[in-house]
Structure formats: C-alpha cells, structure tokens
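Lab manual, section 2.4: Encoding a predicted structure.

Procedure: take the sequence of the chain (210 residues), apply the prediction step described in section 2.3, and record the output as structure tokens. A sample record is shown.
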Amino acid sequence: MKVQAYSQEGKKLEEVALPSAVFDIPWNADLVHQVVVSQQSNRRVVRANTKGRGEVRGGGKKPWAQKHTGRARHGSIRSPLWKGGGVTFGPTKERVFTKKINKKMRIGALFALLSAKARENALVVLDTLEVAGRKTKTLKGMFTKLPSDTRPTLLVLPSMERNLISAASNIPFVQTIQAKDLNALDVATYQYLVLPQKSIEVIEKTFHKA
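Recorded output:
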C-alpha cells in the first residue's frame, strides 16, 4: 500500500510504500473491540472504597442492654443500621478489572487499526520531523499545515525525543507516543496518526518481527 508523504511545511512529496504486513490487514471488528475493552479495563484505577462493619472504628461495647430498656436490640454501633457504621455491599479497592489478552491478539488489533487508518487517509507520513528547541508554536504551526489540522492527533515518535514531547504537551489536540509503545487503544482514540518515516521502521521491527 502507498500513501502520500508530506514535509514539515505541509508540501506533498512522493508517495511512500507501507509494509503490507502491518498496514494492509483486513478489518476485524470483534478482535479490535475485545482488545480495546481489555486495555480500558487494565487502565482502570479503583478509587471508590467503603468500609465494612469490621473496618470502621469503635463499636466494641454493646450500646445498651439487650432487654428492659424499651429500645430496639443492638450489638454494635458499627452495624450498617447506624450512622457512621459499616457499608453493606459497598465498592472496595479489592475489585479487580484486569482482563488478560494474548500478544497475538494485541498485535492483530493494532495492525487492523493501522490498516484502517491508512485506507481512510487518516495516516499522515512525514519525511522528517525536527523542531529546534521546545517551540510549541512551531510544532502547532506544522500540524495546521497537515491534513490532520487541529483534529485529535496521535504523534508517533521513533524514539524518546524530549524536545518534541515537551513542545507537544501544550497542544490540546496532540498526544505523543513512542512507536515501540503503540497500542490499539491509543490508535482507536485519535482521529489521525502522524508518523515520521523512521517510526514506520520501528513499528515494523517491534511488532511484525516480534
């Protein structure tokens, strides 16, 4: 498969051939859905946590005698019936949402999504990507000249490039990721993918030959 390549100034260059083993894979909706859902579950952070009657403080002493008081019977103020008592069937931090997904399925879903992006012209290939210093203004100006413009974009870097990551951190519609860390969830989240040609080589080396 061939796609249009661009310069940083947004000028069209010669078409580049994408590796068919990565960017020419049939769409598999069931596989993509299963992998994306599993990744969302694995990223879920459990924050809600309630205490049961065995965890709240106090309540070691019986509030009042069992009989002859005219009151209802109670054994502990930690009972869920009492204000400040334990919570019945409340959410706890011990909940586990992790879903196991094997490597072959993760890579298959990633390739299916990358192929879909390429077919939909949502894949923008750059010949090179260089930004002097940490100039957010320069990087943002580059994106406005590309087909992605100001739409949600995932910038795939061939390596850890701190200047580019720092420059992109202040652009609200851009997120950066290293090519070796590319995954189905991030590809599915963003409308456009911007890849320097070196990133394509890293993706093929990391995932196709894994």
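Check your result against the sample. Strands lie at 2-3, 5-6, 16-17, 123-126, 153-157, 174-178, 192-196.
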